[in-house]
TrEMBL record:
BP-aspect Gene Ontology terms: carboxylic acid biosynthetic process; polyamine catabolic process
UniProt-recorded name of the protein: Aldehyde dehydrogenase-like protein
Active site: 266
UniProt domain Aldehyde dehydrogenase: residue ranges: 28-493
Assigned protein family: Belongs to the aldehyde dehydrogenase family.
CDD domains: ALDH_ALD2-YMR170C
InterPro entries with a match to the protein in the record: Ald_DH/histidinol_DH, Ald_DH_C, Ald_DH_CS_GLU, Ald_DH_N, Aldehyde_DH_dom
Any GO molecular function: aldehyde dehydrogenase (NAD+) activity
Pathway per the UniProt entry: Alcohol metabolism; ethanol degradation; acetate from ethanol: step 2/2
Keywords associated with the record: NAD, Oxidoreductase
Length: 501
């Protein structure tokens, strides 16, 4: 075996062949510089494997492959039923390799295996199937003007799409971006996050078998500031889709300006969750837990700011603390009863600890956690689920995205105050609210500045429903039918049927 593959045995005993190359033109290749990235198991800090990291010269190669494929009749003129079949076949292959993909995801990212297997892989498969179904339903309109004109629109792919994904849901983020781009006839260069480089390469190994022509899907690893920046600023890339931090999103916007790329950005959040006095307490508590503690708190839409009306504040805080202590079982992600694994990297682990220090020094009240969790073999990036109460609106921990099992709770008096404080943020991704009064629920939902509002739940997003933010949480929408907008242009064609000069 060349050094482009390595045989690995995961902590759950699962053996598989891990690709290490850059996937360009349906082949794994080494990076031209020979540079690599080492992937770390966040549960015990051991090295798993190293993979090739793209530099600008490799990005050029991948973009050229995607451009050639975009123009090639084998893809450009493919019957849309065939394109649908191709995506469906891809989804079936992913299903066949589900255990391997879930194993890699858990090993590299640290999320519980049952979550990888059921939630993440379930979402990947459903997303690809969902967009497979759209491949033969992309059409324009005939627009009536006058008998002297036939005006119609066709929906065209944008061209070569650069896609930059984060490490919190590596495969799911890839599926959200590949599905709509491919069903509309684009070609893709996708860059994975350097923190989680492994699962995406295994996914790439299924592309050729599914039958995609060479160059339609290119998948690379590489540092954000090298490979990511090369993609975002590339003159032959037509679109850039990004999920990650708001700061990097702004950098990408600037780089994309170089040739006025179409952009979709899905960035950070500090999403509020409002609990009104009339809420069903038990349900508010359970959803609030899922809303912030799921996926180690590493979710862009995590409802990380809980605002509770004063009449039930004390009861809520007590019940929430009790529920977190039982439900948030921290441990080895390969164990079945684990709810919370390690943070993805040492950097993220230290970042969460620094916010714990900020909360303490700013005078918020720590009622749970507040330290590293050391009971999983003494190693790894585990954090004890952390709750701060009596948090003031000007505190750093109330205003900034932490991205960990870390929540702040504060109280409010009136509905008006709740809305004002929910909106007092530069972000606008998700929001949740709990009340049994349906009139109030819909009224408040309309007044909250967010791309998504959950009434009496939190974070139960669905791939059939648009996902995205307002304010500094992003631009554009992914998922659902709305997700197709991000990958097509509407070309207008005017046919003169009688206007003579
Ligand atoms: P990041 O936004 O820097 O990284 C996300 C992706 O962007 C990665 O693929 C990375 O390689 C790429 N990237 C980084 N710099 C780039 C550049 N200059 N040009 C092009 N691509 C670039 O996020 P990071 O540093 O991993 O995490 C920091 C914080 O960002 C987290 O603590 C969290 O608050 C937030 N974040 C939000 C995510 C979300 O789902 N919205 C996902 C990941 C992080
Ligand atoms: Mg890792």
């Amino acid at each position: 075996m060349s050094d482009l593959f390595v045989e690995l045995k995961a902590p759950n005993g699962h053996k598989y062949k891990q690709p290490r190359g850059l996937f360009i033109n349906n082949e794994f290749v080494a990076s031209q510089s020979g540079e690599t990235i080492t992937s770390i198991n966040p549960s015990d800090e051991s090295e798993i494997a190293s993979v090739y990291a793209a530099g600008p010269e490799d990005v050029d190669k991948a973009v050229a492959a995607a451009r050639k494929a975009f123009k090639d009749p084998s893809w450009r003129d493919m019957d849309t039923n065939a394109r649908s079949d191709l995506l469906y076949k891809f989804a079936q292959l992913i299903e066949q390799h589900r255990e391997t993909l879930a194993t890699i995801e858990t090993w590299d990212n640290g999320k519980p295996y049952q979550v990888s297997l059921n939630d993440d892989l379930g979402e990947v498969i459903n997303t690809i199937k969902y967009y497979a179904g759209y491949a033969n339903k992309i059409h324009g309109q005939v627009i009536d003007t006058s008998p002297a004109k036939l005006a119609y629109t066709v929906r065209e792919p944008l061209g070569v799409c650069g896609q930059i994904i984060p490490w919190n849901f590596p495969l799911a983020m890839a599926a959200w971006k590949l599905g709509p781009a491919l069903c509309t006839g684009n070609t893709v260069v996708l860059k994975a996050a350097e923190q989680t480089p492994l699962s995406i390469l295994y996914l790439a190994s299924l592309v050729k078998e599914a039958g995609f022509p060479p160059g339609v899907i290119n998948i690379i690893n590489g540092e954000g500031r090298k490979a990511g920046a090369a993609l975002a600023s590339h003159l032959d890339v037509d679109k850039i889709a990004f999920t990650g931090s708001t700061a990097t999103g702004k950098e990408i916007m600037k780089m994309a300006a170089v040739n006025m790329k179409n952009i979709t950005l899905e960035t950070g959040g500090k999403s509020p969750l409002l609990v009104f006095d009339d809420a069903e307490l038990d349900q508010a508590v359970k959803w609030s837990h899922v809303g912030i503690m799921y996926n180690q708190g590493q979710v862009c839409t995590a409802t990380s700011r809980i605002l509770v009306q004063e009449g039930i504040y004390d009861k809520f805080v007590e019940a929430f603390k009790e529920h977190v202590s039982k439900a948030s079982v921290v441990g080895d992600p390969f164990k079945d009863d684990t709810f919370q694994g390690p943070q993805v990297t040492k950097t993220q682990f230290e970042r969460v600890l620094s916010y714990i220090e900020a909360g303490k020094s700013d005078g918020a009240k720590l009622i749970a956690g507040g330290e590293a969790f050391k009971d999983v073999g003494g190693k790894g990036f585990f954090i004890a689920p952390t709750i701060f109460t009596d948090v003031k609106d000007n505190m750093k921990i109330y205003r900034e995205e932490v991205f960990g099992p870390f929540v702040v709770i504060s109280s409010f008096k009136t509905e008006e105050e709740a809305i004002e404080r929910a909106n007092d943020t530069t972000y606008g991704l998700g929001a949740a609210l709990f009340t049994q009064d349906i009139t109030k629920a819909h009224r408040v939902a309309r007044l909250i500045e967010a791309g998504m509002v959950w009434i009496n739940s939190s974070n139960d997003s669905d791939i059939r429903v648009p996902f995205g933010g307002v304010k500094q949480s992003g631009i554009g929408r992914e998922l659902g039918e709305a997700g197709l907008e991000a990958y097509t242009n509407r070309k207008a064609i005017h046919v003169n049927l009688g206007t003579r000069l």
